[in-house]
Amino acid sequence: MKKLLFFKKLKRIQGPILLFILLLSGFNALAQNKAINGKVSGEDGLGLPGVSVKVKGTTIGTLTDGSGRYKISVPPTGTLEFSYLGYTTSELPIGSDNIYNITLAATTKQLNEVTVVSIGYGNSKKTDLTGSISSINAATIAKVPVTTVEQALQGRAAGVQVTNNDASPGGNVTVLVRGTGSLASGGNNPLYIVDGYPFQGGINNINPSDIASIDVLKDASATAIYGIRAANGVVIINTKRGRKDGVQISVDAYSAFQSKPKEYKVLNAFDWGTLANQVAAADLQHNFTELPIWKTPSALTNADWQNAVYRVGQTQNYSLAIRGGNEKVQSAVSFGFYDQKGIVLGSYFKRLTLGVNLDYQAKSWLKSATNVKYTYQDANNPFGTGSLVQLSQLVPTLDSGNKVTNLIKDNKGNYGFYNPQNTYVAKYGNPVFTIEQNQYQNITNFLLANSSLEATIFDGLKVRTNAGVNLSQYSGSFYQPQDDRSDQQYGLGGATQNAFYSQHLYNSFEWLWENTLSYDKQFGKHAINFIAGVSAQKTTNDFMGGSGIPPNSSIRDLSQVSNLKLDGYNSSGGPGNGQTITTLESQFARLTYKYGDKYLITGTVRRDGSSKFDVGHQYGVFPTGAVAWKAKEENFLKDVNWLNDLKFRGSYGKVGNQGPIGLYQYQAAFSTGSAPATSGNLGYPFGKNGSGNGTYQPGDAEAQPANPNLRWETDYQTDIGMDAAFLKGELNVTVDYYHRKSKDFLLNLAAPAQSGHLSLTQNVGSMLNTGLEFALNYNHQVNKDFHFGTALTLSFIKNKLTSLISGANFVTNFGGLSVAGIGWSTFTETNIGQPVGEFYGYKTNGIFQTQAQIDALNATAAAKNPSNPYYQFAATAPGDRYFVDTKGDGQVTTNSQVSLGSPIPKFFGGLNLDFSYKNWDFNAYFYGVYGNKILNYEESSLESFQNRSFVGVENVSQDYFKNRWTSTNPSNKYAQAKYNDDAVGSNVPSDRWIEDGSFLKLKNLTIGYTIPTDVTKKLFVKKIRIYGATQNLFTITKYSGLDPEIGLQNGNATQNGVDSGTYPSSKYYTIGLNLTF
Amino acid sequence: MKILTYKIAILALLVCLFMPISCTKSFLTQTNTFQSTAAGTFTTSSSVVGLVNAIYDSYQNADLLKKSMWYYANFQTHDWFNYGADIVWNNYQINSNFGALSTFWNNGYIAIARANAAFGIIATAKAQGVVTPALADRLTGEAYFLRGMTYYYLAGAFGGVPLELNAITSGLTPRSTQDQVFTQVVADMQKAEGLLLSKTTLPASELGRATKGAAYGYEGAAQMWLKNYAAALTAFNNPELTANYHLLPNFVTVHEFDHQNNDESLFEIQFDVQGSQSWDGGWQNGGEVAWIDDFSWPEEVDNFGYDYGNPGLYLSYQPGDTRKLVTIIGPGDSSLSPGIIKRGGIRSYPEVISGFAANNPKYIGSDGKIINTVGTLTNPWYGVSDQLRSGYYCAKKWRDPTLTGNSGNQVIFGSQNQILLRYAEILLDRAECKIHTGDVAGAMADIALVRNRAFGGTAPAVMQDGANYDGSPSTPITDPMQMVLSEYRHELTGEYSLFFNLRRAGPGVAAAFIHNAYGTDGTSTPQPNPAPGPTHDGKAHGVWRTALPAGRDLLPIPQVAIGLNPNLTQNPGY
User: Fold this and answer.
1) Where is average pLDDT lowest: A8-17, A375-384, A435-444, A583-592?
2) Chain A residues in contact with B162 (beta carbon < 8 A)
């Protein structure tokens, strides 16, 4: 009732306001002409924006605004002509009235072509685009229940590769627009613009239910309006706004169960004990000593680690939105709650979102729009990617460890642990104990608010100011209790592990202020659309944090810990204790000229000044140009009925990427080095006399050299595209070819010592991405009851490094991927002329079967190289892996390593199928990649009995156990099990672990039913839809691991596609409800 | 009125439009509050001093001092050999990938860059009154000295190297000629001479810093590389040298642990033990902080050991030369180091004590008691793990009584300074210059100063080696230049100068001198000791006789450095 009152009140004041507007708008009435106004609506009563309103036979004309309203000064007589693509052109004679409202009828063909696309600082009709932009609407997003916006993009936009790096709650997603453009860590993230507010980084704080549209700007011409942040593409997200035609309340809810993931088939305690005995017996050097109890495998108690840590996951999601308003005020209020309990013990993601969008037409010439979004996030993932490989490695029995229990956890809450006196398992912990005993907090509050004011100076000329703030507040802590169980039970003295407490606070405050002047006008056959603006953005980050040993289990106060260690700053962005400020100041302009609705030309330029660079080197200018030819409008095609639309596009330009560049890297920094007693100190003792000690005097030297020429990474991109429509506009096809050259990656590479530094951070190298993108949309209303639709996107991509720095032909993987083991520090090499992040290692030739075979190879090796007379290793024996001498020098050395394939797919794409029949709707969505390789580190671990990184033993797979090489089972695939595996290197990076990573996944399958309106009416509900959905129902792949969908780890292109025990995906079963009031 | 409102509103928006443009210039210039900038750092005199301390610090590196400079000065002469991973030095097979050469190159150029960076900062600090003019001069002088000295050693070992003289450089400069580099050394030292403190005015608390005298010493040495012998003599004769430095009366004390920074030493690299002296301390931590003299000891004493001597060097000392047993020590010899004797002698080392307790014959002296000598005449110390050392060891590097080596409580890394240049070398340099300038009598007088001290008062009138390398009788040395070279060897071997000085003497001089001293030939593997004596058993005990190949008197430019600077060319012969 209260809501109704509110609208009644609004109605009451509407009249005077309108009158006021009319009075105000009267100012520009010229002596001869009169000012008229009106509204152009579609058949649904909604205002049509961008309708051309002209006085027939003159150059007098205007366009309708966002709500379909127009104002125009016209001669006393004449005819008004209203034209809009996809609608029948209509006319009204000018009479004595001052208000001319009209409803336009849609032409049946090309209805779906009237899409308006966000192009950054403005919109464009899709048909008038000159750049390459992929758009996704709310209906498409709603089809698959996703956690984050990025996931909603997967497979929907050609040229945009979205990979779930792992399936952890909250989403760990990589988005690559047109390939890898940067070698730097985190250098490939696109820029996101949410309701006009730009920011870089993940955007899992946006509720996907709130999104009205996503437009992905891909080519340089489209992205250039965002200059120095545009090289990796721009994703423009607009959230749902209020309506002018009353109120709509919608409630969306779903609940999902997530099945336990597929598990690796590893040995149980009995088999493992058997294997340990066999290895111990075969180990003549006695490198490894068993626990006595292992010698009786049948007596061992099983510890199934995967079963203990994996669980059934649960997700609940609720969204409530009220969207409504009238001609003057429209508001959208939304509330969302998402709660996911992950399939790995201890993992969860909770998100609460609140949003308000308010549009207010204050005067006929003045309007404002305000957007406010608040998000609360609480997430945790204590045992995820990088740690999960442990589950298949841990020895499957805890016998002879904890004297209280040998179970992972008994029903009294006691946890088992490994025998602390046995070197080979002592270093292992019980992950269940760790997850359950440690206490975590990861809470983030986000606030994004911006407000704009737009005035129309005269017809077509608008001035707009937009100001916003973006706040983020993170509070994290971690507590690990002291663990002295081995002391209590074994009297080993001291704590196995001290208690530990850490606490971190990060605050980020950012403001943005942008002002634009735009002019949009048609003069006969000429139409221009111009926008120019200025922008300033300032980000202030504050970091605080530290860690130490708390005095007891209840203190959570850093001032009371011992061994307090405050967080240290690193130049790539913290954390530390202090404040950083980043600023960006920009000017930009875009001009589109259209002639006769056939020929379009767009020029865009942005000049960005960034505080990341030195004075005098702060500004970059990024110009681009594009042309388009609407061939269908030519006379010779106008009457070709089978072709409903044809347009060709071409663009070229330059855009920048400052994302991976840290602060103050241009500046010389001095340091006193490390502590006096340690290496790396810069001081020196003086005053020493005879045998007496001197006095250490500290030193100071340049730790980071000045690099005033430091600059952004630059992309030069060419795009040639075509849009076509067939079958009365039901079939739309878009094809784009692009050539993207990226250069000047900011890398820290070895430098000549004469420069005074052994490594320098500098702009080096270049890379080329070329690709072909293909998008197809087909929608067909077969009859009143049956609708069919399909959408297909396909993206083909080729990537190669084209240059590096003098003296270097390649870079190896850099970044912190946790793959342990001999030889695993290098697993990729990016060579000039080859794709980024190619796997690198040894080629294999099966397994050595006989000593004679090895002796013969050693003899050849000895002849060629007397100082090292071995083909592989001195210790190589039958049953060890046989590597290929690729260089033909008679030996396998580190030089024998070669490229083993690329993690970059040859193509990827998505296929969406929609049917609806009467009240039933059906959606199937497939996503697939083809032609990429995966480096299966997990498999190498499953074939390693020796622990990968330290003294110890680990579990292996059943496959390996049964099929491994033994003197009686001459396998040519599985090496023998031995303790000193490191000495023979059977598990180093090699083609044994390279697998085809192609897959096709049924990402989603939904069946929905909308309850007939005659039923819902009785319930005072407009619409009720219930649905059931399942995600990841099946994956077609040859990949032997748990999930072939593996992306860039830590946003680093040099460590792509490595399966290091990622958080696995599993099937979701969802039941949902959509209600509209 | 309403039109006015509209216009005001529009005007206000238009004004807004340009406001972000008019942001102050400083909007894009943010202050780095996490890293120390030059402006923020060098606001106190101690921080400016720190800038120069860091140049000295680049020499606290074992790979640079020991595995590059010391190896070059000594292994190249065949007086000493390596046991272990670096045996390629023994037959001149060192290649451009030898890791320590990169350290030599890298630390050298980092020292040079630190000096280049210091000049401007010191000048600014001086102008701003942060440091007094006197301190600024001293610091600038030290930076010039250290830059010049670094170029001296780089050019001495590699030949011409790139000259980097500016604070900002891409590091892609090509090599200059050897003469150009030594000309720069002269220039740097001459500037330093005018700016540094005299040894007489250097406060005791600053002992270890470069002095005017040291600068004259290096200037003279550099002039000799340029064959400007007269100019060299002028430098050597400067009172800063002649009045402030002198030979210690007893040769043995020059290298004693309790005589560090003594009056004979012109410049030495300072070390100071802090933290662990075991494996986790100096060496594995980058070789900084502490020093590693016990790598030159017998394995029988320190349970490792990597350098050992040539029996030919032992034989070559003229009878009565007190330098012999405090330079090279062999079977049956006790340590004559007062410091080691005070600690209890060789018999006081844990490895010796436990070996004797275990009745290991290696540790039983000829008198049946616990051994106090480097092996015995009948049972030389060839090494424990195999028998591939010569039985002779470097007594100059066995002076720190606090060390135990890799045994007992593992006091491996010590604090003994490393003398790079001392007054005896200046006297011998001066003698060489005098020969070149025709003053042979003056040369003989300078040589006599050194020899008289060596012989405990008066040296024999005739200079003659004790015996040839093969034990055959030697002949008197009469050629003045050969006399200087022989004295370089007997005075300076086992230190940081010898091969540098031999190469400096001219093309082919070093190869001929070594050939003469050891009968070098075409062999490239260890040869049995030909001379009669305790280690003359017909078996090879790690003594190489490989002749110095042409071009191998220079070290190769590190391959890594060439990779990173394609403008560098490799030395011929590599």
Assistant:
1) A8-17
2) 754
